[in-house]
Amino acid sequence: MRQLAQLLLTIVFLTPTLLYASVSEGEITSSVSSSDDFSTYKASFVSATSKLIDKGVCTLADFKEMGGWVKSQNHKAQPVYFTYCGGMHIKNRIYLDASSGKLFR
Question: Does this model's pTM top 0.70?
């Protein structure tokens, strides 16, 4: 019984890592290719997306659903973009300053 419990804990803790580790850079690039200003900030979008997926904050499906990163109208003077991870609710909005790579909520 103890071995079964240990096996289940191992599966629970490793499964997210295994799911997110299998996402290729090409898949990430494709999932954010419809982002606003993609040609200008491609490297920043791909890097931020990869970090969010690797950390388990977002999934590739989140970016496919959103179409990538959207220019924030709340930060018009700055290259700030947002996406949603975990559903299209304000609480799930994640911002990216594309010039610095900084992610924030």
Answer: yes
